[in-house]
Design the sequence.
């Protein structure tokens, strides 16, 4: 038989269909008896929750598209008509509005779980990269969807974000005009954004299919980071995790419904209930909350990168790479050795390292003084000798897209043999600090780009990139390695034993008090 061996089903209708098209056998294999590690916690619910939110967004989005008019003259009015005249239009729109926020919440928690438990490591590198691609597609889709209501924040948000591409040398202005379909955000922009906003969710669905396929090829990671060694380490996906996912999903949907019915506009911006007016600029233009960390990184680059600053950064990066990125410290300059640069390739690393350190301090000092304190007399004198190579606007754009690129290359940066932060105490602290850093960026991204907020954003941005480029390579070499349990089964038994010991200690501590 072309479909291979299969177990017959008791239900005659299902058996009749499955004998001709074995979809039920496939579902049973991939979601019924599929072996999964026995120690999943509730963080593993968020993959299924994100899938449910994607389907909800597709259904509500298609329904809204039946009543929406993608024209600048009537777009705002058509949304108001959906809210007031279409049967349950208010509910469908609020479900879609808040569904976007809760979709991002589920995905951000899903990413945190993958980061904390090392789900990006071999053999799941492609699985992780497909997940980051889904995040990028979600961001593009959400941005275009935010433009469609054609309110003040929609219009000005689209103007600001699309203008970022003008910072790209040579091709930037052409890309902006292509995005706009003209020389300003107008009807052609709205039309193409509506078309792409309708199309991209189906692209996301296709990439999610690949993501799930890759998951079922490599199998799931687990809180211990230890691969299953046999049937004692796994349980069937159904009914154990279908029930656990359902419980988590119901709680998540309860919170989602509270926002949808009782505070539907809490996660939005009030200015978007004012119709778009190109002649009136809002006092403070901000994107939706789920873009705020990246918006903060974009605005954190307030300085031009001059020649001295770039040389200093290259020297500092060279020192970090030589001391942290290489498994074994090279004897000679790796760049000079690779490209056969005369003289330099014969200089030992011990002699070159102090020169690079001095160069990093000197050039970063001079370049930083020119960039951050341009009005100082010495800075003005040196300014002519240090041409600007990267303007602040382009630097911000590169930093913003670089923050996503860090997630893409993470599987190749982290080479520590252990996966989970459970057995990596230093890594655990670094990841928790990164989580706090992400919340700080979210907060300052919603504040005006002035005063203390800029300094906090710059410090938070520095930690974000340092986590990937400095801290993780440092941990690869120097983080202590504790003994791992031999199997997931033993890990579960050890965890239960520790809990029981804590409980017994607590009860024993209470006994003397009771006796008194």
Sequence:
């Amino acid at each position: 038989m072309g479909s291979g061996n299969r177990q017959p089903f008791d239900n005659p209708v299902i058996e009749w269909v499955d004998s001709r098209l074995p979809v039920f056998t496939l579902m049973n294999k991939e979601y019924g008896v599929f072996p999964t590690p026995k120690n999943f916690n509730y963080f593993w619910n968020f993959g299924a929750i994100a899938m449910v939110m994607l389907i909800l967004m597709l259904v509500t989005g298609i329904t809204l598209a039946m009543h929406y008019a993608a024209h600048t003259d009537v777009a705002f009015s058509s949304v108001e008509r959906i809210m007031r005249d279409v049967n349950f239009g208010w509910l469908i729109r609020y479900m879609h509005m808040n569904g976007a926020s809760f979709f991002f919440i589920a995905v951000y928690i899903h990413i945190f779980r993958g980061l904390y438990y090392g789900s990006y490591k071999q053999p799941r590198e492609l699985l992780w990269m497909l997940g980051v691609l889904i995040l990028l597609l979600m961001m593009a889709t959400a941005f275009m969807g935010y433009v469609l209501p054609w309110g003040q924040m929609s219009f000005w948000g689209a103007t600001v974000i699309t203008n970022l591409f003008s910072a790209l040398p040579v091709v930037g202005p052409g890309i902006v005009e292509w995005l706009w379909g003209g020389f300003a955000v107008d009807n052609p922009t709205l039309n193409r954004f509506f078309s792409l906003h309708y199309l991209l969710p189906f692209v996301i669905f296709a990439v999610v299919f690949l993501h799930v396929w890759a998951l079922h090829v490599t199998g799931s990671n687990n809180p211990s980071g230890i691969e299953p060694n046999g049937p004692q380490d796994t349980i069937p996906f159904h009914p154990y995790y279908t029930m656990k996912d359902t419980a988590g999903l119901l709680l998540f949907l309860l919170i989602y419904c509270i926002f949808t019915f009782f505070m539907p506009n809490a996660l939005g911006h009030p200015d978007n209930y004012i119709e778009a007016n190109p002649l009136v600029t809002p006092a403070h233009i901000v994107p939706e909350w789920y873009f705020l960390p990246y918006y903060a990184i974009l605005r954190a680059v307030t300085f031009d990168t001059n020649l001295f600053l770039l040389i200093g950064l290259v020297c500092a990066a060279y020192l970090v790479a030589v001391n942290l990125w290489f498994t074994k410290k090279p004897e000679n300059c790796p760049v000079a050795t690779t490209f056969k640069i005369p003289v330099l390739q014969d200089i030992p690393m011990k002699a070159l390292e102090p020169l690079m350190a001095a160069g990093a301090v000197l050039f970063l000092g001079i370049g930083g003084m020119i960039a951050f304190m341009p009005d100082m007399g010495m800075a003005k004198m040196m300014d002519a000798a240090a041409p600007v190579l990267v303007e602040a606007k382009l630097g911000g754009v590169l930093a913003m897209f670089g923050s996503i690129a860090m997630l893409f290359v993470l599987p190749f940066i982290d080479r520590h043999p252990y996966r989970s932060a459970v057995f990596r105490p230093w890594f655990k602290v670094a990841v928790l600090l990164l989580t706090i850093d992400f919340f700080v960026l979210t907060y300052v991204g919603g504040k005006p780009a002035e005063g203390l907020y800029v300094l906090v954003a710059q410090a938070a941005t520095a930690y974000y990139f340092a986590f990937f480029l400095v801290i993780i390579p440092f941990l690869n070499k120097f983080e202590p390695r504790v003994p791992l349990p031999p199997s997931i089964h033993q890990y579960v038994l050890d965890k239960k034993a520790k809990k029981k010991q804590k409980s017994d200690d607590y009860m024993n501590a209470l006994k003397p008090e009771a006796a008194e």
